Amino acid sequence: MTSSQRAKIDFPSRIGVWWASETWAMPDAQEVARDIEQLGYGSLFLPEVVGKECFTQSAAFLAATEKLVVGTGIANLHVRLPSAAETGARTLTALYPGRFAFGLGVSHGPLVERGFGGTYAKPLATMRTYLEKMAAIPPQIEPGVGRPPVLLAALGPKMIELSGTHADGAHPYLVTPAQSRVTREILGPDKWIVSEQAVAIGGDDADQLKRAHAHLDVYSGLPNYRNSWLRQGFDESDLVRGGSERLARGVVGMGSPEQAAEMVTAHLDAGADHVVIQVLGNSPTDDPRPGLRELARVLKLS
Hints:
This protein is of the alpha/beta class. It has a single domain (15-204, 256-299), classed as Alpha-Beta Barrel (TIM Barrel). It contains 12 helices and 10 strands. It has helices at residues 26-38, 54-64, 82-95, 109-115, 123-135, 157-165, 177-187, 205-219, 223-231, 245-251, 257-270, 289-299; strands at 15-18, 43-46, 69-72, 75-76, 100-105, 150-152, 169-170, 192-201, 252-255, 274-279. Helix 1 links the parallel strand 1 (15-18) and strand 2 (43-46). Helix 1 (26-38) packs across helix 2 (54-64) and helix 11 crosses helix 12.
């Protein structure tokens, strides 16, 4: 039940989608978004790495749909000034009230320093300062709209705490349902938790495991995720490139659509308000709709 203290996010259902459409022409990607909405999913969250700019994509997806919530998962704070982030998010909130969720993160040292030529230092302090500068934008920018709902890419306890004190909740990524429970315990009842859950369905077990390892390949080399998995109960033997089998099965829903759906609903049972499903294909930008249709049937979304 949404508390009156919460920022306004009008999810039509408790289960949504996480999808990277970066190599898709936007008219085709908009068609995918319309199909996601028709299947009964409540949101579409999209990344921002080195491809398309996430606010422009968000505007396009919001324009193409009627009730679907669109979220950034995650907007990179190193890409834009705090003033641009705040005012852009306010404009989307003004145009589509209750339908935009601004997910924000500090990204990763290797990407920021080697990919952007920036400086990656003291992530917690960087995020706190950035959020304070966003909050300082005067209310006459999009008057009467109020502030957009902000969710932080929060994995460690201090960033989770910050997502409660300086933002409207958290968007955990590559976490177990048990970690969604930890996040809820830290945040209490009045902040949003939107957990991501990757799934590999279709094909046999070996094929699903192959897709899971391929998905984890890049993440397993990033300190933020490695530290997160250690906190979640995995150990150094699980942190091989692509992850161990134990790690892959721990953070990716595999098996039948019914078995994968159980992992999705486990996050809800653990305290997440909303779960976004990332369907793993043979490449990160495969069409997610075949898998989403299977899961929508099992989850009884429409």
